[in-house]
């Protein structure tokens, strides 16, 4: 296809004409004035089984030529006969008018498509029986407050909660400590977008009052936390980390915000995220890992991981579509839990991919993830993808009762210092009582990652067409602006075929996982597969390798991570194995030295 034809095609498919049909009362009608140019061919006899044309556009001028259709087909790798292309012309032109009319319709950002993805096989039976949830802090003594409250900055929820419950410390003092640290260190890390200090202090005072009155709500009561800035908070900026939304004020609270408020947790910050949920770059710059403030924290849950690792919040919430909890948790050395797709409601959260987005906690300890998940999971009557299966957390469950596989070949491919770390990690798991059997899964399916690109392009179609997406800082081939534009040329037929191929992938992976309760893997192994299947994954520190800063002499430590994968709607099993590893090694006690 020559350059001129290509540009004509792009213009026709991606921009609106002055001849938009008007939308009236929910029906689409053609312009009041008939077109001056008669149609190049007679109107189509009918469309579909109803024998009616598409939207009344049969008499509109033919703006797409045979040559342009042929060029588009070539772009998609299709070869139709000339007579077949001639026959396509009327339908292609009619469809163009339908697209343009659809673009005129008001479809708010938070409207989901009229279809829902559910993980697992069609015959999967929901987990039955009441929830089994127990924490190791259920009978823990309160303990004494440290002389310097900042000594609690890197503590886990399981260590802070007993102090709050026994009133050894107050939520107000704890919140002030975290707010001060956030103010001091976030300018260097670029991990906070909006401080909610006034709200936090009010919520902390309310928590103190309730705890004094004996109305203790549970282990999150009085714990300050931060939210990835794609969760709506009524009356507060929710920017998606992106230039077009810098002044966006949310009109409602996300379900997770409501549920954390009900748990007594204290919202102290809206945390940075890569613009529109990609990487660590947002409109103020790149979020950094606290282990090396010259390096990105990765993303897109960038601020959630960085602020948690740096001891600036008690815990944080993030989201993952394709690595956005797992990746920053690796870079920052936090514990990240990507729950089962559909475990937590996404109501009030920015959509990137309706069939792949998941909400999950980022913490400094394994059991902390279980506690946060317990506070926010389950149906809310708003997000129809959410399952009703109970979440079981049994931190004392015998490890011998779990069937644990290990992707040994993936670990064997490691080299140098990383191989030594992972060899030791697997040895430590064995010493902790985890019996592992080698397992192997071959990712031989078709490449269907473009499902994410297609859905993301649909989610942000408005700002792609009006040009606002050009204001995002990242403009390389792999960044969203180019991806959204490129994805405009993904055929609907290929998208649906890819979803069908996804069904095959799910069946294959379910058959593989039938043998295992937990799979021990390097963090990035099976990342695409398991984000498409919706399986839960836990990632945590397992050691460090040496690195240097840009000057070549200043030494830094780079955290390395190990992962535990679980079955659909069973986060408890991988969390149980992760807890055993945490208790056997103590890597969670090693924290970064922060720079101002």
Précis, in short:
The chain is globular, with a radius of gyration of 26 Å. 35% of the residues lie in helices and 14% in strands. The protein folds into two domains: 3-104, no CATH class; 154-384 and 399-444 and 492-589, Amidase signature (AS) domain (Amidase signature (AS) enzymes, Alpha-Beta Complex).
Structural commentary:
The chain has 596 residues and is α+β, with helices and mostly antiparallel strands. The protein has 2 domains: 3-104, no CATH class; 154-384 and 399-444 and 492-589, Amidase signature (AS) domain (Amidase signature (AS) enzymes). The chain has helices at 3-14, 66-75, 82-104, 157-165, 171-189, 197-212, 255-263, 302-309, 326-332, 366-376, 408-412, 416-431, 450-459, 461-465, 480-487, 492-513, 527-533, 572-585; strands at 22-24, 27-29, 192-195, 224-228, 266-271, 281-282, 285-286, 288-289, 292-296, 315-320, 335-338, 358-363, 404-406, 436-438, 518-521, 537-548, 555-566. The protein is globular and about 85 Å long.
């Amino acid at each position: 296809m020559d350059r001129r034809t290509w540009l004509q095609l792009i213009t026709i498919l991606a921009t609106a004409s002055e001849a938009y049909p008007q939308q009236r009362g929910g029906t689409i009608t053609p312009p009041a004035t008939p077109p001056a140019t008669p149609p190049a061919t007679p109107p189509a006899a009918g469309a579909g089984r109803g024998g009616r044309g598409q939207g009344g556009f049969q008499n509109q001028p033919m703006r797409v030529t045979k040559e342009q259709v042929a060029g588009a087909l070539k772009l998609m790798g299709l070869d139709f006969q000339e007579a077949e292309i001639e026959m396509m012309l009327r339908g292609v032109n009619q469809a163009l008018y339908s697209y343009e009319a659809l673009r005129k319709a008001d479809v708010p950002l938070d409207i989901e498509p009229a279809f829902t993805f559910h993980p697992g096989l069609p015959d999967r039976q929901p987990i039955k029986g009441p929830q089994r949830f127990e924490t190791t802090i259920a009978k823990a003594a309160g303990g004494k407050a440290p002389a310097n409250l900042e000594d609690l900055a890197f503590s886990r929820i399981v260590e802070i909660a007993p102090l709050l419950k026994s009133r050894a410390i107050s939520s107000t003092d704890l919140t002030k400590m975290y707010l001060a640290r956030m103010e001091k260190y976030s300018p260097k890390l670029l991990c906070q977008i909006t401080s909610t200090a006034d709200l936090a202090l009010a919520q902390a005072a309310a928590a103190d009052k309730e705890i004094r009155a004996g109305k203790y709500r549970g282990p999150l009561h009085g714990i300050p936390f931060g939210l990835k800035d794609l969760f709506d908070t009524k009356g507060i900026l929710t920017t998606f980390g992106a230039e077009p939304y810098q002044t966006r004020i949310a009109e409602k609270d996300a379900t997770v915000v409501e549920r954390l408020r009900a748990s007594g947790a204290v919202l102290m910050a809206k945390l940075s995220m890569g613009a529109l949920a990609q990487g660590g770059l947002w409109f103020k710059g790149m979020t950094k890992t606290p282990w090396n403030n010259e390096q990105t924290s990765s993303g897109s849950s960038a601020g959630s991981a960085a602020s948690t690792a740096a001891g600036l919040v008690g815990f944080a919430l993030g989201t993952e579509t394709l690595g956005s909890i797992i990746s920053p948790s690796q870079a920052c050395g936090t514990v990240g839990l990507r729950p089962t797709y559909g475990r937590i409601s996404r109501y009030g959260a920015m959509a990137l991919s309706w069939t792949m987005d998941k909400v999950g906690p980022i913490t400094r300890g394994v059991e902390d993830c279980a506690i946060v998940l317990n506070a926010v999971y389950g149906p809310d009557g708003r997000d129809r993808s959410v399952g009703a299966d109970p979440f079981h957390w049994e931190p004392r469950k015998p490890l011998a009762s779990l069937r644990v596989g290990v992707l040994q070949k993936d670990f064997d491919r490691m080299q140098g210092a990383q191989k030594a770390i992972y060899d030791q990690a697997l040895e430590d798991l064995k010493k902790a009582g985890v019996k592992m059997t080698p397992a192997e899964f071959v990712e031989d399916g078709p490449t269907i990652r473009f499902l994410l690109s297609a859905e993301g392009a649909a989610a942000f179609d408005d700002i792609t067409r009006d040009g606002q997406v050009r204001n995002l800082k990242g403009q390389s081939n792999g960044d969203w602006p180019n991806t959204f534009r490129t994805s405009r040329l993904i055929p609907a037929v290929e998208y649906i075929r890819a979803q069908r191929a996804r069904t095959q992938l799910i069946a294959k992976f379910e058959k593989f996982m039938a043998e295992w309760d937990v799979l021990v893997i390097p963090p990035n192994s099976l990342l695409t597969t398991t984000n498409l299947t919706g399986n839960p994954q836990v990632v945590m520190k397992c050691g460090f390798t040496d690195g240097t800063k840009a000057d070549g002499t200043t030494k830094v430590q780079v955290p390395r991570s190990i992962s535990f994968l679980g079955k659909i709607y069973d986060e408890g099993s991988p969390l149980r194995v992760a807890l055993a590893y945490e208790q056997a090694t103590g890597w969670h006690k090693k924290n970064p030295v922060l720079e101002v």
